[in-house]
Amino acid sequence: ELLKNTHGHEIAVLVRNNKDVESFIPVFEKEKIPYIIEADNDILEDLDVQKLILLLKTVAKQTNENSQRALLLDCFKISPLDVFKINRLAYEKKVQVWDVLTDDNLLKEIGIEDKKPVQQFVDLIMGEEGFVKQAVNTRFDVLFVDVLNKSGLMTTILKKPHGQEILLRITRLYDEIKKQVARNPLYTVSEFIKFIVLLKTHK
Prior knowledge:
It is a single chain. This protein has about 200 residues and is mostly helical. The chain is built from 13 helices and no strands.
């Protein structure tokens, strides 16, 4: 009834403690009500911020752990069964996940259901114009924006009822990155990951 007579941006829900906000989030999302939480929350605890950081970790260091988790990010639309097959073969053959991802014969051997999103993932990260190469040849603030946009993560975020709130958190992170790059134009994705680890350790 309130929404019929009042503009959404004029409605506020006040809570005594920040933790009390969490109980409202499932309701807003179920009813597809857009919302923004104005609170001093740790941006690193946001799931979508964590996804972005995971992608940047994968760009900085293509370990099996990083790659296996990145393959499951919803922005890539890779079948979980295909990811399982890739990971299992890498384990059985005692090779890196990227050895499987870049070998057409191995992918045929395990019967990948849909190779297209897998190939898009490979090209995006390790391709001729992929993020790994870009990380060496481009300023980190530019890379950060490209990873957010080209991965499809931005599109996924904007489809969520609280997409604007998530973008505000990412913007805060981006502002910090711009400060670091201004101090040191050679600031790298690896240095950023170390910075994030330090923040988590001392928060």
